[in-house]
Amino acid sequence: MIPLAGTKVLDLSRLLPGPLASLVLADLGAQVDKIEDAAGGDYLRVMPPHASGAGVEPTSSAFLALNRNKRSAVVDLKKPEARAMFLRLVASYDVLLEQFRPGVLDRLGLSHQALLESNPRLVVCALTGYGQTGPLARRAGHDLNYLARAGVLGFQGPADRPPAPPGFQLADVSGGLYAVIGVMGALMERAVTGQGKLVDVAMIETALPFAIAGFGLAFGGQPPARGDEVLTGGIAPYQTYATKDGGAMALASLEPKFWIQFCAGIGRDVDMSDLVPGPHQAALKEHLAGVFAEKTREEWIAFADERDCCLEPVLTPDEARNDPHLAARNVFFELASPWGRIPQMRTPLTSPDRVHTPPPRQGEHTDAVLRDAGFSDDEIAVLRAAGAVR
Q1: Residue 42 bears catalytic tag
Q2: Are 69 and 357 in contact (CB under 8 A)?
Q3: pTM: predicted TM-score of the whole model, two decimal places
Q4: 49: cis peptide before it, omega within 30°?
Q5: Of these residues, 11, 143, 172, 200, which one is catalytic?
Q6: pLDDT tens per residue, range 174-203
Q7: How far apart are CA 131 and CA 101, in angstroms?
Q8: Is 287 a catalytic residue?
Q9: Domains of the chain (ranges plus CATH)?
């Protein structure tokens, strides 16, 4: 059984956060209809690198990874004819996901209140950087800004330099996932009350739980030392180290039993002060750097298999795609599409047996989306002639 089968989602979002949310919903069985504007649609489509195929426009591989199991309709919400059409369209959906800054939909005559009046059972999920209220509500921002303003980046090392930007979009992804949680909760509430609601998701807030351990220290009057805490680079047993052949290993022997195992394997006497931050850590880090440099990454992998001491190789993205464990879990797969066979990543909680449909071409399903909402072919023709849809 696909848990969200029968749930209809109208997705106005673009780029990463919203499309990730609707990808998870689509993988769980929701019908997701992606509404794109006439001036290029979701502009993630055009960002390199591109996949090409016969009869289809070159399309970003990132877009293709985020938009399977969805349909695409092109609607120009700036056209006067589009407002009434859109409110009629919304009446047939369970969820509307939008990622505009506060005020944008209001200027189009499609405020959250107007949407809920058109469909009182609608769940409107508004996913933004800073939320619908507060002094920064209408401020522009990106992932790094949200992490910085939330105080989360302030935990990031190195200790002697400004915090290093993460190698991934933490707030964007957490925003998308909390949007899914908010939508699911609102749908459960609607099952009891019969009423929809607005779900206000601010990416700055969704980043905060990632640093809850550090904030917990601060709440107790112990401000964390950036880059020098146990989990942020302050101890040698929780570090990455270069190997003899230019690879890297991630050591995370936090508990005494794992540190004892690791030390026994390298022939080092155990000292439990090794697990506590302090000035002595610099010498220990230097010592372990020399130890790891004596073996290749494959030799350390064999060591980890034998010792079971919380030691793993640092894989490149290409290596991860071929990792035996991830392969056994069916994390990566390929999907037949007009662009050929395209690489995909399974979203957690989705069955490996889930049958997927390929990402849509821009506007591929405009007529189908409108017909499903009760528009006749003549009405669609009138909207198309007015430039309201394409």
Answers
A1: no
A2: yes
A3: 0.95
A4: yes
A5: 172
A6: 999 999 999 999 999 999 999 999 999 999
A7: 9
A8: no
A9: 8-206+330-385 (3.40.50.10540), 238-242+248-313 (3.30.1540)
